[in-house]
Amino acid sequence: MGSFLENSKQWKCVEIPCEAVYADDLAALVAERFAVGVEIAAPGVRFYLDECSLPERWESQLQGVIEEFAALFELHPPIAWQSHSITDAGWADAWKVHFKPLRVGERFIVCPTWEEPGAGEHDLVIRIDPGQAFGTGHHETTRLCLEWLDHWDRNRANSNGSLLDVGTGSGILAIGAGLLGFAEIVAVDIDPEAVAVAEENIARNRLTERVRLAQGSAVDVPGRFDVVLANIQAAPLIELAPVLTGKLKSTGTLVLSGVLVEQKEPVRVAYAKQLLNPRLERTAGEWCLLEFDRN
């Protein structure tokens, strides 16, 4: 048996103050972006990052999460977070207590590899290991997309179409599409760390042969698709309107998420200019999903 020092690791403990009423929402945003367990501890939230594998831009990524959170709830002044290093042998496994199997929609179960999903005969299990990528299913935007895929597939006569996943993050939506039977799936992300995590998760779900993964933007992807799904943010969605519209087949469906309810109208206008018709809107908390088609 090794000594404590041999088994211990260095961790970055990050603490973000907030009022108790907002703690669950802040914890969900942090958990989704960093794919870690987040502890709600007055007066705010706390989580741990392995110092041996800190992403190069983790501080700016965290600041982005905090700014998104502050804008969502109109909080002022700026939130001052802090961090410090600790040595402990137990954090590597202790945080996993917070990442449990999560049912999304009627059939999907998002499950970490160390847990048993408790799946039924018709359930579809998405195996995800945490990594420095967006997408564990806990955030409303990801859940909205998985629920849309589940509902859309159950109302189609043929689920063998093609799908483009823009901003794939952990690969969770591409994996969900693969489990539903999409014949052609292309997943792209501009973040190389996200692509690395997505590659591992896609392989973990035995979908390497079905999902074509690439670092880059939708503009780099050739061809047109039955479904184009983009779970990013309102500003890039507006900027990418001509590109994403151009990736749709004549009978294709465009799905946009990552949009705050208060931001939906500028997004609608941008795609109306591309002659797309709004068909469906779903909301979860402060977030919404928008569906468009050409008909």
Describe it.
- The protein has 295 residues and is α/β, with parallel strands linked by helices.
- The chain folds into two domains: 91 residues, 2-Layer Sandwich (Alpha-Beta Plaits), CATH 3.30.70; 159 residues, Rossmann fold.
- It contains ten helices and 14 strands.
- The strands form three sheets. It has a seven-stranded mixed beta sheet, with helices on both faces. It has a four-stranded antiparallel beta sheet with strand order 2-3-1-4.
- Strand 8, helix 6 and strand 9 form a beta-alpha-beta unit.
- Helix 2 runs antiparallel to helix 3 and helix 5 packs parallel to helix 6.
- The chain is globular.
- The N terminus is likely disordered.
What's the short version?
The protein is an alpha/beta fold and 295 residues long.
Would you tell me the structural class of the helices and strands?
A: alpha/beta
User: What is the element string, with H for helices and E for strands?
Assistant: HEHEEHEHEEEHEHEHEEHHEHEE
Number of strands: 14
In CATH terms, the superfamily of the largest domain is Vaccinia Virus protein VP39
From the spread of the alpha carbons, the general shape counts as globular
Give the low-confidence spans.
Answer: 1-7
- Largest beta-sheet details: 7 strands, mixed
User: Number of helical segments?
Assistant: 10
Strand content: 25-35%
Intertermini distance: 67 Å
What's the level 1 CATH class of the largest domain? Alpha Beta
How would you write the strand order of the largest sheet? 10-9-8-11-12-14-13
CATH architecture of the largest domain: 3-Layer(aba) Sandwich
**Percentage of residues assigned to helices:** 25-40%
Radius of gyration: 19 Å
The overall pLDDT, averaged over residues, is: 85
CATH fold-level topology of the largest domain:
Rossmann fold
